[in-house]
Amino acid sequence: MSSQRAPTADLGDVTPARSRHQGRRSAVTLTDGLAVVGTADGDLRAFDVSADSGPPRPCWQYDTDGEPSVVAAVPFDVGLVVGERSVRGEIRCHDADGDLRWRYDTGTDLGEAQQETRFLLPFVASLATDGDRLYAAARRYERRTDADGNDLRHFESVVYAFAPDGTVDWTYRTDGSPISLDADDGRVAIAYNRCPGDHQHGLVVLDAADGDPRWMWDPGTDGQRRVGDVALLDDGAVVSSHGDYCGYRLDSGGRERWRVPLATPTDVDGDIVYAYPNHVHATEVGAVFVTGNTYPEEGRETEARHPTEHTAVGVSPDGDRRWDAPVGGFASGLGTDGSLLAVPGAQNFRDRDADDHALRLFGVADGPIDTLDTDGVVTAAAVADGTAVAVEEPVVYHDEGRERGAYRLHRVEVENETARSRH
């Protein structure tokens, strides 16, 4: 696997990230040779990233109002859709030239933010499309106090099905926290990473036609933590479980075919630590899970490191571990195209090793393909037709005080058979 630098384009100014990652505030998607970046100030910037264009070339910009950040973006209906974290929690559909086609304010359904603090604002957590409709999962989080003075988490959440003209065809509402969507073959799968209220299913699979539930699944573990991500297959789904830190392959209907321990509690020098498997991508040739930060079973601080923290793990269709490789830091999402994955490695808030900042490319079956080194942290990525793009953000670690990197877009061409595989 090689390590390389790539052509870049400036994205303007942004407040540097700090030692602890602050959640998503940028997004990127690829559509017809354009990379469209949703920025931390809510604007969109489009760049030509076709192979013969040299460095990414600015094409258009769409400016918005208020103080949003764009946290999700997907191609849709000869254009794209983006989702915000903002007071309005807006979903916007744009043509390929940036013109606004329609917009929807999820805040009207989710309710007003308890405070205008970033993590309490309405949040479009995930977008997905099956070509016919756009599906969006939006949520709002707040803290409540019960009669005994206990601090409680509460979520309001809605999953939407939008027609190409912006009409809402149906909604699915719960008090769980949706984190990820996948849509394919008449199904919409929703992963709920926290279930503190009445909704107690980590995975719900809906009928795409009307939003009615087809089947549900849960890891069956104690506590609020449930499912981190879901990937649909023709005959079921693969999920990353936050409940027991494992990966599961499910048949249609939710019957478990296999279970793979990923970052389960492990004794490291007398400290029991674990890590959440936050992401999964699956095709008929296998699945890849990506784990996150190390946490101790007791308290929040630890000098120990889980042996499979910040790791991509490749698994065969039968559930056998094939390969594993580091991803450098916390990945806020995956860029995927068939059997090709682009994993953005942001902060490792415990080690804060700037040498690990990179975009890493993997094939589902064979593992590591390439690495794009960056000075700052990589917070969003997309890949399509052999081209990968990544958003880098500057970072200042509290125990160093040095600003590393810049707000910019990277482009890298993927020279590998996996880039041409459409499994």
Automatic annotation (TrEMBL):
- Specify the domain of life of the species encoding this protein: Archaea
Disordered: region residues: 1-26, 298-322
**Ranges where the Pyrrolo-quinoline quinone repeat domain occurs:** 88-266
- Pfam families membership: PQQ_2 (PF13360)
Ranges annotated as biased composition (Basic and acidic residues): 298-309
Which InterPro entries does the entry mention?
A: PQQ_rpt_dom (IPR002372), Quinoprotein_ADH-like_sf (IPR011047), WD40/YVTN_repeat-like_dom_sf (IPR015943)
What is this protein identified as? Transcriptional regulator
- What organism, scientifically named, is this protein from? Haloarcula hispanica N601
User: Lineage in the entry?
Assistant: Archaea, Methanobacteriati, Methanobacteriota, Stenosarchaea group, Halobacteria
